[in-house]
Amino acid sequence: MGTSAKIAAILLLPIALAACADSGDSKYTTFTDDRGVANQPYPDNYKVEVLSFMRTYLNNPAGVHDAAMADPVQRVVGGRLRYVSCLRFTPRESDGSYREPRERAVLYVDGRLDRVVENASDICAGAVYAPFPELEKMTR
Q1: CB-based contacts of 103: which residues, under 8 Å, 6+ apart?
Q2: Strand pairing of 80-90 and 65-70?
Q3: What are residue 86's phi and psi, to 5 degrees?
Q4: How far apart are CA 103 and CA 124, in angstroms?
Q5: Quick one: which of 53, 49, 103, 44 has its CA closest to 72?
Q6: Cα 111 vs. chain centroid, distance in angstroms?
Q7: Cα separation of 14 and 11, whole Å?
Q8: Cα-flanking dihedrals φ and ψ of residue 34, to 5°?
């Protein structure tokens, strides 16, 4: 094969692959069937999952103050329907002091903890918090 033919093949390969990739059904590639529009299952074990996550999320899980959590409710986040539970707490800093309370939104997919959103003011607007003493009782 000559040099010109090789160059032509290299230049035409992306066009051929693009044509194969467009099957005409306009489906997006995803690892789950979740398209974000159907009702999600309620996260039954949300408190246990949050406690487990917070043990790894916080540098020092002992000494958390003012812990409160809202029960999961369905909200649209990033264009997808998710169960969201809002969490408010004041962790102990490395110097032993306490600063302002933190607010986090915990998102659930398929009934399981998916991720924590740190900038949660919009997502958690209007959340109804209840004391979450289990978070305050955590140890290392």
Answers
A1: 86, 87, 88, 120, 121, 124
A2: antiparallel
A3: -95, 145
A4: 8
A5: 44
A6: 12
A7: 7
A8: -70, 115
Q: Which residue has the higher pLDDT, 15 or 48?
A: 48
Tokens coding 136:
């305050």
Q: How far apart are CA 80 and CA 106, in angstroms?
A: 14
pLDDT recorded at residue 4:
67
Of residues 8 and 46, which shows the higher confidence score? 46
59 Cβ contact partners less than 8 Å away, ≥ 6 residues apart? 91, 94
Q: Which amino acid is at 93?
A: E
Question: What mean pLDDT comes out for the span 111-139?
Answer: 94
Q: Give the burial string for 14-23 (b: 16+ CB within 10 Å, else e).
A: eeeeeeeeee
- Count of Cβ atoms closer than 10 Å to residue 76 Cβ: 12
Q: Which residue has the tokens 């409160």?
A: 68
pTM recorded for the entire structure: 0.71
Q: Which amino acid is at 28?
A: Y
Answer yes or no: are the C-beta atoms of 138 and 51 closer than 8 Å.
Answer: yes
* DSSP structure string for 38-51: SPPPP-TTHHHHHH
